Amino acid sequence: MTEALSVTLLLSLKVAGTATLLNIILGTATGFMLARCRFPGRDLLDTLITLPMVMPPTVLGYYLLVLLGRNSTFGGWLKDTLDIQLVFTWQGAVIAAALVTFPLVFKPARAAFESVNPQLEQAAEVLGLRPWAVFFRVSLPMAWRGILAGILLAFARALGEFGATLMIAGSIPGQTQTLSIAVYEAVQAGEDGLANGLVLLISAVCIVILLAISHLARARDGRS
Amino acid sequence: MKPHKAVWILLTALTALPATAADITVSAAASLSNAFKDIAQSYQQQYPDGRVRLNTAGSGTLLQQAVQGAPVDVLAFADQETMDKAAAKGLIHPQTRRNFARNTLVAATPATSKLTLAQLTDLTKPQFERIAVSNPNSVPAGSYARAALQKAGVWQALQPKIIRTQHVRQTLDYIARGEVDVGFVYRTDAALMKNKVRILRTVPTDKPVSYPIAVTRSGRQQAEAQRFVNYVLSPAGRAILARYGFKQP
């Protein structure tokens, strides 16, 4: 049982970690773009990419299944030309988790970048820094605490993703069966001992992450 | 009307809803969902005072819900083992237990596929990449399939190809969408999706696929629950089951 537990935990960490990594790059970039660039349809774009946070995971799972499935145009193209299959794979679970947690990264990132004084960025630019250097040496260092809190929250949420993951990745032990799905299966099969172990494990992980977030928030308040 | 008064009235109305006199909850195996929806409808036509709430899932899930104290009046499963467990836990009135239908396990493939399956051992061939089997620990369709594949001696060898689903209708859905090459469902399930799913062959099972039904001990509407069970067993109930392809017990 302990071996099954550790395999499931490692898989969950791998899926949630990869999804979070994707979102660190995409979410931070999107947050920065929405904070700094003005363009028509900016509010609409913000709304569209916030949707996954409020939509039922089963709706997302269905969208993904229809979009990435073998019989769909896009899914068929992926399989025929690139030989990539996402349904029933851990990569599929990553896509589900990344989609659900994307707003949790880009929303705080946008707010954090908006709270950075633009005059400081302009000063850096006047002093001769290239735009990417302004981003990495001025904007990002001043916004990173807010971004990090969002990232940790996204990681915790990714660990708990259930509905969309179950629909697109299925429940294959050792391959796509994450902690939350293993809990569901253990309860259904009446394996209370296994269920108890799993829920304690996932609760502990979530508590540690939330403690880290409140620690970050306190440190930020202390500074300002 | 002041807002808080409106909220109060709404709350009262909501809490009053489940208290209708003859309300019963029927937990039925996923494979029964369409047939039982029809049965519940025609039952309510015959007995206008009766109200049936239908709860469908894999039989193991239904059992666990009842074990944890869910307010269920009637249990209908897709195998005898699950009902035996319910009886052992004292959840049902044993004298009310009846078998009311039989079914057949089949291996099915997407309608567009050109695969054939002469015998179960052929599933090890490379053209079968993904095989959907419902979770054998909580879904009867899965445990029947596991037993058949174990008897054929290929259960272990097939493990890497097996996609585990939460109930038999999820297996059916994956076949219909072409996400798997073959899946194990009941003949009655495959019949619901004739244009999307093709039956490859019948899968012989050691134990017949037979459905038991019983009245629970915890239900508060014992007479009403018994009346529903009697209706399922009546000629009218049997006719609806037969229409969906279920055989006589």
Automatic annotation (TrEMBL), chain A:
Signal peptide: none annotated. It is found in: Cell inner membrane; Cell membrane. The chain crosses the membrane at residues 15-35, 47-68, 88-106, 147-173, 193-213. Coiled coil: none annotated. One of its GO terms (molecular function) is molybdate ion transmembrane transporter activity. Its main location: membrane. Pfam families: BPD_transp_1. SUPFAM superfamilies: MetI-like. One of its GO terms (cellular component) is plasma membrane. Residues 9-217 form the ABC transmembrane type-1 domain. Keywords: Cell inner membrane, Cell membrane, Membrane, Molybdenum, Transmembrane, Transmembrane helix, Transport. It is a multi-pass membrane protein. Belongs to the binding-protein-dependent transport system permease family. CysTW subfamily. Part of the binding-protein-dependent transport system for molybdenum; probably responsible for the translocation of the substrate across the membrane. This is Molybdenum transport system permease.
Automatic annotation (TrEMBL), chain B:
It holds the Pfam family SBP_bac_11. Keywords: Metal-binding, Molybdenum, Signal. CDD domains: PBP2_ModA_like. GO terms for molecular function: metal ion binding; molybdate ion binding; tungstate binding. Molybdate binds at residues 31, 59, 141, 168, 186. InterPro entries: ModA, ModA/WtpA. The complex is composed of two ATP-binding proteins (ModC), two transmembrane proteins (ModB) and a solute-binding protein (ModA). Belongs to the bacterial solute-binding protein ModA family. This is Molybdate ABC transporter substrate-binding protein. It comes from Neisseria zalophi. The lineage of its organism: Bacteria, Pseudomonadati, Pseudomonadota, Betaproteobacteria, Neisseriales.
